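We modelled the chain as a single entity of 461 amino acids. Its sequence is:
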Amino acid sequence: MSKYRTPGVYIGESSSFPPSVKQVETAIPAFIGYTEKGPSEPMRIRSMVEYQNLFGGAAGEIGRFKINHDGSIDSPVIPDTPKYRLYYSLQLFFNNGGIDCYIISAGNYDDPIQNSDLEKGLKLLGKLDEPTLILLPDGYENPYDLYTQALAQCAARKDRFLICDVKHAAGANNPIQKSAEEFRFGIGSNNLMFGAAYYPNLKTIMTYQYSQDQIDVEVEDAPHVKVLRHSDETISANGEKKEESLYHASDGTYMMKYNQIKKEIDSVKLTLPPSGAIAGVYAMVDHSRGVWKAPANVSLNGVVAPQVVISNVDQNDLNVTASGKSINAIRSFPGRGVMVWGARTLAGNDNEWRYIPARRFFNMVEESVKKATERFVTEPNDANTWTKIKAMIENYLNTLWRAGALAGAKPDDAYFVKLGLGETMSAQDIQQGKMIIVIGMSVLKPAEFTILRYSHKMAEA
């Protein structure tokens, strides 16, 4: 029945533009690990300052120094790899182009590192929609159960990707081969297309981050031995407070010792798993070139050298192996720096999903189209709706093709969208409320092997 009943002029507006697909973000990693403090719920941050305000600083893992009666200093063995790695991995992420990320605190530094805590963090991550990369820097020592659970989450959601650190097999005769063997045995064979692995660890320019009150110093002051910290103080005979720490000694003796100790701590350069730096590379390449560009042939910032020197021969088995579990090498090249020199997923022998950009590109398109088509749920399952949806998806894919994300000289070669009765659906499908859309894309593959062929040219008269 007409709604117009009173004489007059009525204005109506009709939409002349088809609905559009809003592309989802592609490089928002979730770091799961241990923090000094902070909220138990996941938090999105954009800088180290924001992280420190919410989650605190790095762990005090320096050990105890001793000042002997003769003034000499006994130093602890300061490891070049910290026990709690999330803080430093986050620094690598921002140094290499990272912008936004999520932090999921699995516990505090007073807690021992346990897979059960990190698994709880993974479950929290499973409830979030925005993260697209998973990192577990504090699971480095015993990561395989965590990695298989993370890969299962990636496969179930199809909107995220796992970056794995390959643990270094220290002391082995052939550490490269041994590290690869242990990783491939532990990672299993399920959902490999949703993750990528990197080796070796990275020697960085970073040093331990600590506050003064995290330095313990035992002073041999006969007949007593005392431990001094930044906040220590005693009460003198007249009731006045007197500082007794290294930093407030009235005679300045301890201040000199403190400077010696601090110099020794700062001389230790950290060696870290590569996942934080790799996540930064993913973010930088995605923003500058697009998710379809392989995150490889890119130099790393803040990195001096890989922990292990990898040659072409060494990389042969890492990159292409009978198991298909490819491991991407990080190598040093004279005049070029430390480079990411591989772009394969863990499904390295899979013709469809062997390359990281192919898997992550499909993740992006699938998630973007899924969110865009949600508005059509409960709309009439008829030709009018099909036309709108098909035009919306084709416009989106055409934009990607023009940006260079899809192969093909013309749109018909690059993609197709099928939707309709007799084409993708039967009458029974429509009766059951099903709307079936079929999308095909000719995704680009990276030029992994550039082969130059030469021949002699015969002289011409």
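As a brief sanity check on the tokenised model: The two ends are 91 Å apart (CA to CA). The longest strand covers residues 101-108.
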